[in-house]
Amino acid sequence: MSYSSKTIGTLLQEVNTTHFLPAIQRPYVWTPAQIIALFDSLLKGYPISSFMFWAVDEATKAEVRIYRFLENYHPDKMNEPTGAEGREVTLVLDGQQRLTSLVIGLRGTFSEKAKGARKTNAAAWSSKTLWLDLLKDPSEEDEDGESDMGVTYGLAFHDRKPSNTHRSHWFKLGAMLDYESDARLEALIAKVKSELHPGVSAYEREIAETTLRTLHRVIWRDQAINFYTETDQSADRVLDIFVRANDGGTKLSKADLLMSMITSKWQNGSAREDIFGFVDHINRGLGTPNKVTKDLVLKACLVVCDYDVVYNVKNFTADAIGEIERNWEFIKRAIENTFRLINRHGLGGDTLGSLNAVLPLVYYLYNTPDFDFRGSTEFERVNAAAMHRWLLNSLLVSAFVGHSDQTITTARATIRDHLRIARERDFPVQKLFDAMAKGGRLSQVDERTIEELLELQYGKPRTFVALSLLYQGIDWAGSSWHIDHIIPQADAQRNVLRGRNMPEHRIVEILENVNRLGNLQLLRADENVEKSDMPFRSWITGRRRDFHELNMIPERLDYCDAMWLPEFVQEREKLIRRRLLALLGGVSA
Fold first, then answer.
1. CA 415 – CA 367 distance, rounded (Å)
2. Phi-psi region for residue 342, left (φ > 0), alpha (ψ -120 to 50) or beta?
3. Could you read off the pLDDT of 533-587 as tens digits, one per residue?
4. Is 443 exposed, middle or buried (0-12, 13-18, 19+ CB in 10 A)?
5. CA distances from 295 to 301, 312, 391 (A)
6. Which of 155, 268, 434, 581 lies most in the core, judged by the most C-beta atoms within 10 Å?
7. SS3 of 76, please?
């Protein structure tokens, strides 16, 4: 592996002319302070690490999607796609942040928001360029001591040219791009010296000249850009190089790496925009927050199109990508209906726990496109409940933790075989339980796992799942449900218990039980507000009998007091065991 080098000025002439970004590029994330520190390092002669480029040939050029480097940064501005036709193309695999910073500092702008102003206020934003104070002595430390990066050159972003005084003389950094030759540099130095304030000392004039010469050398003479150019056209090799080269930086998901290849073969529109936009829609547009990833969507594509579910580059062949695009609208519909279904049952965001567990449901809904399972028919109502029940069991026994690809493959094959022979296209709950159990994996809650569930604590994702399994009669639609401490946390605080003259060992016992599953219930949001506004004794004794049965409240209401919390939890755990055991016998094929 041999490296080459070139000047910053030469490289900037190639940016957005022959040098572009691949679709696997991430958003630009550097701050003005980091840009200033980069140029300060260059002016001091420090190395700025090597770059890695990929020279693509004509065949590969036709396959890849390329993007322009940002020149004028704004948080809402994305890298623009551009065409590769009619020019040489070199893609930057490592060094995007540094190279973009060089472009912004020398021929671009950085938009910043005024402190305290709203992001949505256009007037709050100003585009700033990078300036250099020629009178600032770089050998002197910053008197204000504000720089934590050791910056000593007088670099600063300004939205307009700063005023020159006997203390400062500002030079726009990018102007040096116009002074490549030595002759033009000498003319520039003479011009700047003639414009210096009369109060500038001879020593400061020498600093100004030295700084200008240093800047010229950094841009036009020093071979500051050290780079390696990859010429192999294998996409897998390049993706592997990209992962390793960027391992020390912001971690990229495999979806980011695959997007370049998928985007290049997506015939209509942009795969990047389609997939990213859909992920945002699922996470923010369904009324319940979700945490779907690009990786899940792409893996779902492999699952529903009956390809190998292992999530790697080789499985996204040209044929696979073509089939995914042809069926993209149906895939989106299946994924969206799946999340609408689980959201209606209170699952999503932090409460779901495992994204892989939803993939068998996506596959089933993809293959039953005539139904959305919102309960408009008896078939939809029954099978929505069956899917909910299966998902809860899978989440509670962590069926998709470890070797999840094999579990997904088994579940998919079971559903596919069932739909081929079933007269009714019902969801095969028992067949899934049986198939997954054959591989030696626990597939549904049994007596052995009940005791583990009772150890669940407040704040854990599986706690909501366990509680929702207990509340089979809940109508989830249109209501927001909260996990609530039956005996309030406020009544079981150490200082409150000490105020009741309770011994320390009893206080410890009470505190150990306050967050256990046995002291937790699901309440509608409005009921939870009502509960918090009333004295607990009045609230609990005023509940209807069916409320006590639904929430498994022990008959001994004298236990409904913080001082009897361990006994209350013990009695309620008996009721929870009884309900779970009754539910276990109710699984039907």
1. 9
2. alpha
3. 677 778 888 888 788 888 888 888 788 888 899 999 999 889 888 888 777 654 3
4. buried
5. 10, 11, 20
6. 155
7. coil
